[in-house]
Amino acid sequence: MSSMNVNEIKNYLPHRYPFLLVDRVLECVEGERLTAIKNVTCNEPFFNGHFPSQPVMPGVLIIEALAQATGLLGFRTMGEEPRAGVLYMLVGVDKARFKQQVVPGDQLVLSVELKNRKGIIWVFDAKATVDGKVVASAELMCAAKEGAI
Description:
This protein is an alpha+beta fold. It has helices spanning 6-9, 59-78, and strands at 24-29, 33-39, 86-98, 107-118, 121-130, 133-146. Strands 1-2-4-5-6-3 form a six-stranded antiparallel β-sheet, covered by helices on one side.
C-alpha cells in the first residue's frame, strides 16, 4: 500500500491543469484497488459556466476523475510508468449513476477496484463519495494503447 502526491501522480498521468483531477492518492493496493482525492474549489474553471449562480461539478468530470484514478491503479499494477507513445484511454462507461451534487468545498473521494483484465481492456468498479455518501458510481473500461499519442 502506498500513497502518492500530485508530483508523483504526474509521472503516471499525462493530464495537466485544468484537467488533472486527482490531487492525492491515499492508498494503492496494486492489482486490487486505489483510493484518491480531488479537492473541489470555487476556482475550478468549469464553475464559470456550470452554473455561475449555483456551481455544480459536471458529472462527466466526476467520471473523468474516476477514470484517472483507474489509470493510476493500472500503471501501478503493471509496475511501470507510461512509455512514450502509450496513451491510457477511457473506452467504456456502464451503469453510471449520479446521486448527489458536488459543489465547491467538497472533497471528492475516488475509489476504484479492478474487476477484470482481458487483453488490453481493464474493467473497474468506481465510486465517488463526499463525506461518506456516494455521489456517483460506474463501471469503467479502460485500455492502454500503443501509438495513441
